[in-house]
Amino acid sequence: MQKCTRACFVSLLLFRSLSGLSPTRGLRAVVRETGGHQLLEIWDGQGLRKCFNLTALKKHGQVYDDAQFGCLSWSECENKLLYVAEKNKNTSTETQDRESDRSVYREDWGEALTNKSSPVICVVNLQNDTVGVLQGVPTDVSPGQALWAPGSQSVIFVGWYHEPFRLGLKFCSNRRSALFKLDLDGHCERLSGDNLSVSCPRLSPDGSTLIYLQGKTCVLFMLNSLTSSETSTLLDVVNKPQPGEFAGVYEALPSSCWSADSQRVVFSSARRNWRDLFMVDRRSKKVTSLSDIYGSWKLVTVQRDLMVVCCSSPNTPPTLRVGFLPSAGENVTWRTLQQPALTFDFLWKILDVEPPPEEDNTQYSGLDFGAILVKPSRALHEARIPLVVFIHGPHWCSWLKSLMVCCNLVFPVSLFLSFYPVNYRGSTGFGQNSILSLIGRIGSQDVKDVQRAVVTTLQNDLTLDPKRVAVFGGSHGGFLSCHLVGQYPEFYRACAVRNPVINAATLSGTSDIVDWRYTSVGLQYSYDQIPTAEALAAMLERSPITHAAQITAPVLLMLGGRDRRVSPHQGLELYKALKSRASPVRLLWFPEDGHSLSRVDTQADCFLNTVLWLYQHL
């Protein structure tokens, strides 16, 4: 590792898009942008070894650096590199004049993937300094997440089917896709089932076994032989986990997750209200938790059995920790690389909530859900503390949000709040039955769950002020926030929402995930779906716009002008409904941002305005 220290340091300074260390760790490949050109650089311990101007070569378009399609994979012999890029438009064989094609609509893969339409797999040969595009990928799939198969004469990749048209991929693990093997001579074969969804192929160090996630529920599969395509299930769906047990796989695998002996796989996943770190043995299929303190554990990588994780809790900001994979029956000895400069003086506790019998889901009965109450350790002048209810989107889980931490740093005295993320039924970490229970019941079950949790907590904690409660959320969390202030107008004092779903009926024709608009209200979706009056009525009935006339709490709307997931006209629809009734409302418009509102200047603007809005109205 020492001989590549300098190269690693320099590559970090130059890093822009992708970076990958060679198998022997003596070389590092870096893709970066400069002056409108994308460069592929190869560094060793002495400095820059090779440089390819990928833009000038005109073999393909922009290199993909996203987590959905992107990759940068070294061959075993370290003579070849693999990556994914946009297909070069100039290689089109269409006979019509290219000038007349400028206005032809090109599909893309939706929110956060708007510049990605037709990916191709590219190979760089470092021996003869050539760059080429692999042929043989089926014409009805878009390839991505590629890696070298043993021997470096073939490539394994995930192919997402894009016919009859593309649906949004971001946060949608259920898109029809398959695992493929492509030889360098152009012969391609499918390794997985046809009508499934797969992702995250990860090859064991000895090259004998490939694992990948499969299905809407993230089943962890093993491809035991790349020649026979024999598969077996490593981890199956957990429908209703027992307290303290493993609840299923709910997130992507890191690029390096195997043990050095190719017998164990490490991953992080939600378990009730937290993200935990797990290890599964491929022989016994036993799952073991590797964390030693309560909090959120995110696996970054595993290198020669050394695990690197990012840990946080309501009292501790994200911190890197390292530890070696343990032997059987032993615990991990964890070391913190650098103690956090700050910790926070919060009291926090996990709350389990059981719906009353009248709110039980008879199809998936006996489910509970959770929440996290975080509040200052001391009351200011012994006054009761306002409560901010945080609501996330569907099939997600909240354990710690930056707003709570930032409020403490920026407004340690003047803004004295408690925070309450609620993991209603349908959140990850509670088993597959909980996920399925929300389908067809949005706007009802989830709204009642949040309200039940808030009321129960206010009744049991007399330090909280029931007359000063606010609600905050984005996307589906904004949908629920607006439902709450509409259905319980006397209960909430303020509301702040980011890109909220307001009217599912009008959203059905503009969202990049139109299928969710149908599925969420319990309707079957097909590509040739034509909206019916009944379907639109069902969507409207479940939408917060139907309660807009009852909203009296001041509402702050934050909208991204380039949002492909939830059109900003959704928020504008509520804005106009509130303005027409002289209800207090403020709208922040970010024309260059999308659904996540992730630009640095946007995040700063949203944070400060949200804090001031809560301070003003609480």
Low-confidence stretches: 1-16
The helix-and-strand class reads alpha+beta
CATH architecture assignment of the largest domain:
3-Layer(aba) Sandwich
Largest sheet: 8 strands, mixed
Q: Termini distance?
A: 55 Å
Which strands sit side by side, in order, in the main sheet? 24-25-27-26-28-29-30-31
List how many beta strands DSSP finds: 31
By CATH, the topology of the largest domain is: Rossmann fold
Shape: globular
Mean pLDDT: 91
Name of the CATH first level of the largest domain? Alpha Beta
Multimer state: single chain
The figure for the number of domains is: 4
CATH homologous superfamily designation of the largest domain: Alpha/Beta hydrolase fold, catalytic domain
Helical fraction: 10-25%
What portion of residues belong to β-strands?
A: 25-35%
Global Rg: 25 Å
Total helical elements: 11
Question: How is this structure best described in words?
Answer:
The structure is a single chain. The protein has 618 residues and is α+β, with helices and mostly antiparallel strands. It folds into 4 domains: 54 residues, no CATH class; 155 residues, YVTN repeat-like/Quinoprotein amine dehydrogenase (Methylamine Dehydrogenase, Chain H, 7 Propeller), CATH 2.130.10.10; 105 residues; 272 residues, 3-Layer(aba) Sandwich (Rossmann fold), CATH 3.40.50. The chain is built from 11 helices and 31 strands. The protein has an 8-stranded mixed β-sheet, sandwiched between helices. Strand 20 and strand 21 form a beta hairpin. The radius of gyration is 25 Å and the shape is globular. Its EC number is 3.4.19.1. It is found in: Cytoplasm. This is Acylamino-acid-releasing enzyme. InterPro entries: 6-blade_b-propeller_TolB-like, AARE_N, AB_hydrolase_fold, Peptidase_S9_cat. Homotetramer.
